[in-house]
Amino acid sequence: MSFIELKHLNKFYPISGAKDFQALKDINLSLDKGELVSIIGESGSGKSTLMNLLGGLDSQFSGEITVDGKKMSTFKDQDFVNYHKEKIGFVFQSFNLVSHLSVLDNVTLAMTLSNVDKKTRNERAKEVLKQLGLEEQYHKKPSQLSGGQKQRVAIARALVNDPDIIIADEPTGALDSQTTDQVLDIIQEIAKTGKLVIMVTHSEKVAARSTRVVTIDDGKIIGDVRQGELQTHENTFGLEKKAKSKNLSFFAAIRLALLNMKEKLGRNILIALGGSIGIMSVIVMLSLGAGVNDYLTKTMNANVNPLVSEVKMPIARGSNASSSVAADSSVMATTPAGTRPSGPPAGVTQSDPFAEENLQELRNIPHVAELNLAYTSFTIGSDNVIYEGSKYAFMTFGTTSGMTDSNILYGTFPAEGEILVTEGIANQMGATAEEAIGKEVTLSVTIDGEKLEKNYVISGIYTAGQSIGAFESVYISSESFDLLTAENNLEVKPNVVYLVSDDPKNTQAIKDEVATLGYRGSSADMLASTFTKMLDIFTYILSGVAGISLFVSAIMILTVLYISVVERTQEIGVIKAIGGRKKDIRRIFVSESFLIGLFSGLLGVGIAYLITVVGNIIVQNLFDTAILNMTPAFAIFGIVTSIIISMLSGLLPAQKAASLDPVEALRHD
Ligand SMILES: Nc1ncnc2c1ncn2[C@@H]1O[C@H](COP(=O)(O)OP(=O)(O)OP(=O)(O)O)[C@@H](O)[C@H]1O
């Protein structure tokens, strides 16, 4: 049995709307290793059709092609891949070298696809290139070579995997007569090493150099002439059969993608820039949200003891508390233990007092080191400071438990018989904050529905910080408060509790637990959490709007990769012809989109960083605070998002590239 046997081979091309066209008609042919066969015939006679079938580029035929005892009609996809990798090498009229790869990379491409290690593949390629007189050309690009050199590189590429069969389609068609002779010498030499060389040619001169001339006309063999034997000898190309081939590695795919991207550097920089705009906008928006949030939290917490959490009972449904100011009007979902008395009289908003079981519940919260009891009330119009016969109204009255030094603007904490007032009260009294200290006033407050009056000396000016403190307030020490209520035969239970944490790090956990149990936190805390929620929503909306540009860049990447597939159609054909699997081609294109995503992401993060730095310098000058807070998490998020979007956009073009028909791809101009 011959190495290749064609039996009753027919090829029909489907023509839409017409009868199938029969390009090959009952071809019977036996070919053996060591033969140099020329296939000649008129244009359109079926030569290329026959070559495509022999080369396994086209698997649609009837009849049988048997190669080395194996029937091609039974080949699966992987059999064709192996056939291309191990059995066959192609040489094309137009060379079909990959323009962005060096001579060495073009020749090693088949081995790269088989994941042969770099050293072995370079050694083997250099050996073959040297045999073909190309030792000076390893690092040149195809465009820097003469026609003859290009064809020799293409021959080296066909030979490097030591195939049994070389198929050459008009290998000298694009060469002048002197170069034609050189190339024919090489081809003849290859056949002498015991390979089967099949050439398609129009040239009498080329046909004359072969051992057998098969003539085709109108899809039929009309002549088969043998003209002498070749003096076959050992393989002079120094190639040993390689080990079982593996598949294209991830790193090799990235390298191939990088080489192609380098070739179109300008275009790729522009794509990365385009892609980076969306990433950059999203990161800047997120940084802005985080920065504003930080600023607000910092401002709100500036005068708050980091160890202390303020706790109040939840507002009883149906009490007048629901008509009080927004900061106090929060109804909790759950109700803590304990009973609640009915609400205070109209015009007075008092938090409900804590029962012993409530206090116990709060004491049991993890990390609570200390529990301070306090009293506070919020009134509209009924509480006053009376100074020299005039009344100055204030809204908040309470004890100083839970305050820090930072709450004292001037003066000292109140001792017994002393009070703290806000600067606004001092000013209403016609005094500056400093002047008010030491002044004697009468305090008139409503507690548990009783109007109480007593004289006090102002010991200091109270401040709640920059953001909260709009309400005028008066504070006395717990001891003074107990004295005041005792003197009036009132028994007032604490309605504010200050929980002191064992570590500032645990304060938030305590606050969270307080909320979970259904108690209220401080007004500042509640305001802060409302602000934070609003800011989060605002940030997400802004980032979403910025995200639209991500969608635009996804479409841009998709388009560019589609164009790239069209540009590289021939290259894809070559990769298939030398044993590249669909998967390998997909991998090369997906790698390219991965790299585009990576570069866009890095660029986006870089630009966003610059914007935050410059933006913060400007804002710092204007408002004395930084407002853009770009965290490493945002940078990572930006890069990962960019890569994901880019790879998703690359999937369709990669799929298109992988499913190209090799015959059509190779014919593509
Ligand atoms: N994809 C196809 N669909 C339909 N008909 C085709 C297709 N490819 C080739 N043919 C037809 O099959 C016949 C043989 O074509 P083929 O390309 O094999 O000829 P050829 O001998 O190689 O010609 P040339 O020397 O000009 O390259 C021609 O009539 C051609 O029009």
TrEMBL record:
- Which PROSITE patterns does the record cross-reference, listed alphabetically? ABC_TRANSPORTER_1 (PS00211), ABC_TRANSPORTER_2 (PS50893)
Which residue windows are transmembrane per the record? 269-292, 537-566, 587-611, 631-652
What GO CC terms are in its UniProt record? Answer: membrane protein complex; plasma membrane
Membrane topology (UniProt): Multi-pass membrane protein
Ranges for domain ABC transporter: 4-243
Family label: Belongs to the ABC transporter superfamily. Macrolide exporter (TC 3.A.1.122) family.
Q: Could you tell me what this protein is called? A: Abc transporter permease protein domain
Q: Which organism is it from?
A: Trichococcus palustris
